[in-house]
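We examine the record.

___
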Amino acid sequence: QVQLVESGGGLVQAGGSLRLSCAASGRTFSRYAMGWFRQAPGKVREFLAAINWGTGNVLHTDSVKGRFTISRDIPNNTVHMQMNSLKPEDTAVYYCAAKSQSFSGIPYYSLPGWYDYWGQGTQVTVSS
Protein backbone atom coordinates (compact mmCIF):
# COMPACT_ATOMS: atom_id res chain seq x y z
CA GLN A 1 0.00 0.00 0.00
CA VAL A 2 1.31 3.41 -0.93
CA GLN A 3 2.05 5.77 1.93
CA LEU A 4 2.96 9.42 1.56
CA VAL A 5 4.23 11.39 4.54
CA GLU A 6 4.81 15.13 4.25
CA SER A 7 7.12 17.12 6.47
CA GLY A 8 8.90 20.46 6.53
CA GLY A 9 6.01 22.83 7.10
CA GLY A 10 6.02 25.49 9.75
CA LEU A 11 5.87 29.20 10.49
CA VAL A 12 8.07 31.52 8.43
CA GLN A 13 8.23 35.26 7.84
CA ALA A 14 7.36 36.75 4.47
CA GLY A 15 10.33 36.52 2.15
CA GLY A 16 11.61 33.38 3.82
CA SER A 17 12.02 29.85 2.53
CA LEU A 18 10.89 26.35 3.40
CA ARG A 19 11.58 22.96 1.90
CA LEU A 20 8.76 20.46 2.05
CA SER A 21 9.42 16.75 1.78
CA CYS A 22 7.17 13.86 0.83
CA ALA A 23 8.47 10.43 1.79
CA ALA A 24 6.89 7.74 -0.37
CA SER A 25 6.76 4.02 0.41
CA GLY A 26 4.96 0.86 -0.56
CA ARG A 27 5.72 0.74 -4.28
CA THR A 28 8.37 1.14 -6.90
CA PHE A 29 7.65 4.65 -8.09
CA SER A 30 9.58 4.78 -11.34
CA ARG A 31 6.38 4.96 -13.40
CA TYR A 32 4.54 7.30 -11.04
CA ALA A 33 3.76 10.98 -11.20
CA MET A 34 3.95 12.99 -8.00
CA GLY A 35 2.21 16.26 -7.32
CA TRP A 36 2.09 19.02 -4.75
CA PHE A 37 -1.14 20.82 -3.93
CA ARG A 38 -2.23 23.27 -1.28
CA GLN A 39 -5.51 24.20 0.31
CA ALA A 40 -6.22 27.38 2.23
CA PRO A 41 -9.26 27.68 4.52
CA GLY A 42 -12.43 28.10 2.50
CA LYS A 43 -10.68 27.54 -0.82
CA VAL A 44 -10.41 24.66 -3.26
CA ARG A 45 -7.34 22.48 -3.42
CA GLU A 46 -4.85 24.16 -5.74
CA PHE A 47 -2.31 22.44 -7.98
CA LEU A 48 1.27 23.67 -7.58
CA ALA A 49 3.65 21.32 -9.36
CA ALA A 50 4.14 17.79 -10.65
CA ILE A 51 7.08 15.57 -11.47
CA ASN A 52 7.40 12.30 -13.36
CA TRP A 53 9.45 10.09 -11.10
CA GLY A 54 11.15 8.15 -13.87
CA THR A 55 12.10 10.98 -16.28
CA GLY A 56 12.29 13.90 -13.89
CA ASN A 57 10.05 16.00 -16.15
CA VAL A 58 8.48 18.78 -14.10
CA LEU A 59 5.60 21.21 -14.35
CA HIS A 60 4.85 24.23 -12.16
CA THR A 61 1.72 26.30 -12.14
CA ASP A 62 2.26 29.89 -13.24
CA SER A 63 1.46 31.38 -9.84
CA VAL A 64 4.49 29.75 -8.21
CA LYS A 65 6.86 29.46 -11.16
CA GLY A 66 10.19 30.99 -10.23
CA ARG A 67 9.51 30.70 -6.50
CA PHE A 68 8.68 27.02 -5.96
CA THR A 69 10.65 24.08 -7.36
CA ILE A 70 9.68 20.42 -7.27
CA SER A 71 12.38 17.75 -7.31
CA ARG A 72 12.85 14.10 -6.45
CA ASP A 73 15.46 12.17 -4.51
CA ILE A 74 15.38 8.72 -6.06
CA PRO A 75 17.57 6.81 -3.54
CA ASN A 76 15.44 8.08 -0.65
CA ASN A 77 12.05 7.83 -2.41
CA THR A 78 11.36 11.44 -1.51
CA VAL A 79 9.86 14.34 -3.42
CA HIS A 80 10.71 17.87 -2.34
CA MET A 81 9.18 21.28 -2.85
CA GLN A 82 11.61 24.14 -2.35
CA MET A 83 9.64 27.30 -1.61
CA ASN A 84 11.38 30.68 -1.73
CA SER A 85 10.19 34.28 -1.40
CA LEU A 86 7.17 33.12 0.56
CA LYS A 87 4.17 35.43 0.87
CA PRO A 88 1.32 35.52 3.40
CA GLU A 89 -1.02 34.26 0.67
CA ASP A 90 1.04 31.06 0.50
CA THR A 91 -0.39 30.11 3.89
CA ALA A 92 -2.18 26.78 3.49
CA VAL A 93 -2.01 23.06 4.16
CA TYR A 94 0.32 21.52 1.60
CA TYR A 95 -0.34 18.03 0.27
CA CYS A 96 1.68 15.50 -1.65
CA ALA A 97 -0.09 13.18 -4.08
CA ALA A 98 0.83 10.18 -6.23
CA LYS A 99 -0.57 8.82 -9.47
CA SER A 100 0.31 5.35 -10.79
CA GLN A 101 1.29 6.67 -14.22
CA SER A 102 3.37 9.47 -15.64
CA PHE A 103 1.75 12.70 -16.71
CA SER A 104 1.57 13.68 -20.35
CA GLY A 105 0.67 16.83 -22.23
CA ILE A 106 -2.99 16.63 -21.19
CA PRO A 107 -3.21 18.57 -17.91
CA TYR A 108 -4.98 15.91 -15.84
CA TYR A 109 -2.03 16.29 -13.46
CA SER A 110 -3.55 19.56 -12.22
CA LEU A 111 -6.76 17.87 -11.04
CA PRO A 112 -6.88 16.49 -7.49
CA GLY A 113 -9.18 13.68 -8.67
CA TRP A 114 -6.52 12.33 -11.04
CA TYR A 115 -4.28 11.23 -8.19
CA ASP A 116 -4.57 7.85 -6.47
CA TYR A 117 -2.88 8.54 -3.16
CA TRP A 118 -2.55 11.49 -0.79
CA GLY A 119 -0.52 12.40 2.23
CA GLN A 120 -1.98 13.87 5.39
CA GLY A 121 -0.71 17.39 4.67
CA THR A 122 1.66 19.79 6.36
CA GLN A 123 0.77 23.30 7.50
CA VAL A 124 2.68 26.27 6.11
CA THR A 125 2.05 29.64 7.72
CA VAL A 126 3.68 32.80 6.36
CA SER A 127 3.54 35.85 8.60
CA SER A 128 3.67 39.40 7.28
Notes: The CA atoms of residues 93 and 123 lie 4 Å apart.
